[in-house]
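Input sequence (140 aa), recorded before submission:
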Amino acid sequence: MLTLRTLLASITLVAGLLVVGCSHAPKAQKPTGPGIGGTVIYITNAKLPDDATIEVRLSSLDREGRSDREVANATFPKPVSMPLEFWLPYQPGLISQREAYGVEATIVSKGRALFVSKRPIPVLTRGNPKQVEIVVAPVR
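Predicted structure, token format:
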């Protein structure tokens, strides 16, 4: 018959083995090369349609901070859960330190925008980051 001490020791041993086994699970590799990383989130309880995609764009900005010329873009499938983590590579030769750049995101289903970012998030130049959080809001 098992004593309480033996039972607790067995449970501790199994829990320890599980922790060690999980710590060696493969980790996602961070992409290398020039790019912008971040997350796209929306603040609502709405469920995205199965065919939804998330488009992320890098553009130069005009003097008012609006998108002017697209530099890079990528489309991602609907994630299993939000937020979506993204990596948007770009060609460094297309970036001028004298210009301002921003990233935007749109969640699309059946060719229709469901959620959009309200304005571009400044990135890359003029002291702006390469890692951002883009909040998208429902299209009205």
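Checked by second reader. The first strand starts at residue 35 and ends at 42.
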